[in-house]
Amino acid sequence: MTTETAATPPVAKRVPAERTHHGDTVVDEYAWLADKDDPDTIAYLKAENAFTEAATSHLAGLRDTLFEETKRRTKETDLSVPTRKGDHWYYTRTVEGQQYGIQCRRAVRDGETEPPSTADGTPLDGEEVLLDGNALAEGHDFFALGTFDVSPDGRWLAYSTDFAGDERFTLRVKDLGSGEVLADEVPDTFYGSAWSADGSTLFYLTVDEAWRPYRVWRHAVGSAAADDAIVYEETDERFWVGVELTRSEKFVVIEAHSKVTSEVRVIPAANPTGEPAIIAPRRQGVEYTVEHHGHRFLILHNDGAEDFELAYTSADAPGDWATLIPHTPGTRLEGVDAFANHLVVSLRKDGLTGLRVLPVGSTNTYDIDFPEPIYSVGLESNPEYATSTVRLHYASFVTPDSVYDYDLVTRTMQLRKQKPVLGDFDPAAYEQHRDWALADDGTRVPISLVCRAGTPKDGTAPAVIYGYGSYEASMDPWFSIPRLSLLDRGVIFAVAHIRGGGELGRRWYEEGKMLAKKNTFTDFVACARHLVKAGWTATDRLVARGGSAGGLLMGAVANLAPDAFAGVVAQVPFVDALNSILDPSLPLTVTEWEEWGNPLDDPEVYAYMKSYTPYENVSAVDYPAILAVTSLNDTRVLYHEPAKWIARLRATAPSGQYLLKTEMGAGHGGPSGRYDAWKEEAFVAAWILDRLARA
C-alpha cells in the first residue's frame, strides 16, 4: 500500500486469492482486507480516513453549520412522556451537553392518573435514576444498551452494555431498592430478556460463533453465571431465538424463527423451572407469533394467508387455530397487542400503516383514522395489561414525532407530546407528496417526497433519493430535524418504496428477494428516472443514499445506471454480498440463505448473485462520486466489504471520486452518542450538498 500524502488516494496492495465454486474461479486481490488483525489493514483504513478528511476539508465550515443547525433546533434538555407500569412512572431524560439518555422512574402518587411532566425537561420531583448512560459511558468511545428490563415487582433491573459496537453485551442485575449492582455478571449476551412472575429468575440469550442467538438461559438472581441452566438451544443454523415476557406477565415466550419459518414455546412465568411447551411445531414456510390473552393464545400467522390472518387457540391446551380476522389480500397484518378488554392489530394497507381495534366480546371492530395522506403510526410501549388507554406514536415527513394516548372505549385521542423543534420551524412551510414510477416490468412503484412549499417542478431542484428494499422492511415516512437543513436549502427528499420491502404487503417483499432480487435495483433506477422525467429534479442534481442492505442497493445501482446519479452515499454497505454469503462461518450468513439464496450449494443462485453483487461487477465506466461510510466493529456488515469495494473502484475506474470513512470504534449503527451522531450526519449532508452544488 502506498500513501504518499493524505491528499493522494491510497492504493491498496493486491494479493491474489482464488475462490472456486461451481466450476467458476475468481481472483480476489483485496481479500486480505478481511483480516482486522493485519497491521496493513488498519494502516489502509487510516490512510483512507486521512484522504477523506483531506478531500472534504473545504466542507469543514459547512459541517459545523449543519451540526449547529441540528443542535439549535433540538431541545437538548428534555423528558419523554412517562409511562405507567404498576406503582411507577417510567421515562427517559436528556441533558444539554450529555451524549446519552438517563433512565428514570417516579412513584405514582395518590389519585394521580395523568402522566407527570416538567415544561423545561428537568427532573421530576421525587425522581429515581435507574441508569445513567453518561456515567456508564465515561471513559469509553462507544456505548450502547442492549437489554433494559425491570422485573414485574419493580425491584430488579436487568441491563446489558456494549462498549465496542460489536453487539456483544455484558448482562448485569441492579437492586433498585438499594441501588446496588449485584455480582451477577454474564458476558457475551444478546438483546432480549424475560423475568419470572416473582422476579427471582431471569431468562437471557447468548450467541454462537456466527453471532446467532441460539441459547436461552435461566439465571437465579444472586447466583453465579456458572450455575445458569440452558432452557432451550436451537441447533438449526437458519434460526434465531428470542425471549420475552407477555404483557399479561403470565408466560415467558421463546420464539425460534428463520426468514420464513417460526416455532414458539412458552413457560408459565409462575413456574420458571418448567419445561417449555410448544405451541405448534415448525413447518417450512409457516410463520407465526404468539400473544397471551386470558384463556387463549392469539396467533398471527401466514398458513394459507399470504398477508397473514389472526387466530387463537386454547392457552391450557394449544391445538387447532380458530380465525378471528380472516386473511384479506392487500392488508398485511403485522402484529397484535393484547389488553384485558381490547386487541389492537398493527397493519399495513395501500402503503400506509394503521391500527385496528377489536373490543373483546364485541363484533364492533374499527380502524383508527389519521389526517395526513402520508404518515406512519404504531403503538408505543404499553406495559399495562388492564388498561383501556393505549399509547401510540405518529409522525410524517412534516409532522414531528408525536405521542398520543388513545382511549379505546371513547375513541378519543389526546396529544401528550410532540417532539419540540426549536426556532422558526413551521410545518406549513413544507409539503409532502406521493408519486408513482413505472418499473421495467410495468409494476407501479410508490415514491414519497417532501420539500419546501412551492419548490419548482421544472427540473431545477436538487434531490436525494433514499432506498432500502430488503427483509420486508418498510421505509415509512419519518420526521428528521437534520433533514430540515437540506430542505431549507431547496433539496427534495424522496423515498423509493421498492420491491423487497414490505410497503405493499408480503407479495411486494417476495418479488424483491432470492432470484427476483434484481427487481429491487431496477425499481430504484426507475424511481430515479421518474423523478427526472416528472420534473422533480435532474440527473446531475440527484444523489442516491442507502445503508446496510440499502448499501447493497447503492452499489448495484451505481453499476447498473451510473449515469442516473450525481453522487451515491453508501453507509455500512453490504457490497460484497456474494463472498459473504458463500462463507457460512461469518455472522448472519446461514440465516441469510432464505433471503438471498444459498450460492454455496445452488449454482443458479451463485450465478444470479454474482451478476448483481456490487464488488463483483465493478467495471471501467464513469461512476458518480461515491462516499462509503463503515465501522470497524460492525458485526452485521463487516468493514472490509466497503473497503474492498472502494479499493477495486479506484483500481478499475480511476477517474472517479471515491471516499471511504471508517469509524474505528463503532458498530453497525455508527457513533453512539447523540452529538457524535449529529456530527456524522452533518458530514454526510455536507458531502451531499457539495455534490449537488456542482450541478
Indicate the multimeric state: single chain
Q: Count of DSSP E strands?
A: 38
Termini, distance in Å?
A: 34 Å
Strand content: 25-35%
Largest sheet: 8 strands, mixed
Determine Rg (CA atoms, Å).
25 Å
Largest beta sheet: strand ordering? 31-32-34-33-35-36-37-38
Count of runs of 4 or more consecutive helical residues: 12
Helix fraction bin: 10-25%
Q: Catalogue the unreliable spans.
A: none
Outline type: globular
Structural class: alpha+beta
Can you give the mean pLDDT?
Answer: 96
Report on this model:
Keywords: Hydrolase, Protease, Serine protease. Helix 2 (60-73) packs across helix 12 (674-693). 19% of the residues lie in helices and 34% in strands. The longest helix has 20 residues, at 674-693. The protein is built from twelve helices and 38 strands. The two termini are 34 Å apart. The strands form eight sheets. It has an eight-stranded mixed beta sheet, sandwiched between helices. A seven-stranded antiparallel beta sheet has the order 8-9-10-11-12-13-14, with no helix packed on it. Strands 3, 4, 5, 6 and 7 form a five-stranded antiparallel beta sheet that branches. With 695 residues, the protein is α+β, with helices and mostly antiparallel strands.
Short descriptors:
single chain, about 700 residues, alpha+beta, 8-stranded mixed beta sheet, 7-stranded antiparallel beta sheet, 12 helices, 38 strands, about 35% strand
List the helices and strands and how they pair.
Layout: E1 17-21, E2 24-28, H1 39-55, H2 60-73, E3 78-79, E4 83-85, E5 88-94, E6 102-107, E7 128-132, H3 133-137, E8 144-150, E9 156-162, E10 169-175, E11 181-195, E12 201-207, E13 213-220, E14 229-233, E15 240-245, E16 251-257, E17 262-268, E18 277-280, E19 288-293, E20 296-301, E21 309-314, E22 322-325, E23 331-338, E24 342-349, E25 352-359, E26 366-367, E27 376-379, E28 389-395, E29 402-407, E30 412-418, E31 430-438, E32 444-452, E33 463-466, H4 481-487, E34 492-496, H5 506-510, H6 518-533, E35 542-547, H7 549-560, E36 567-571, H8 577-581, H9 589-596, H10 603-612, E37 625-631, H11 640-652, E38 658-663, H12 674-693
Parallel strand pairs: 33-34, 33-35, 35-36, 36-37, 37-38
Antiparallel strand pairs: 1-2, 3-5, 4-5, 5-6, 6-7, 8-9, 9-10, 10-11, 11-12, 12-13, 13-14, 15-16, 16-17, 17-18, 19-20, 20-21, 21-22, 23-24, 24-25, 25-26, 27-28, 28-29, 29-30, 31-32, 32-34
Helix pairs in contact: 2-4, 2-12, 6-7
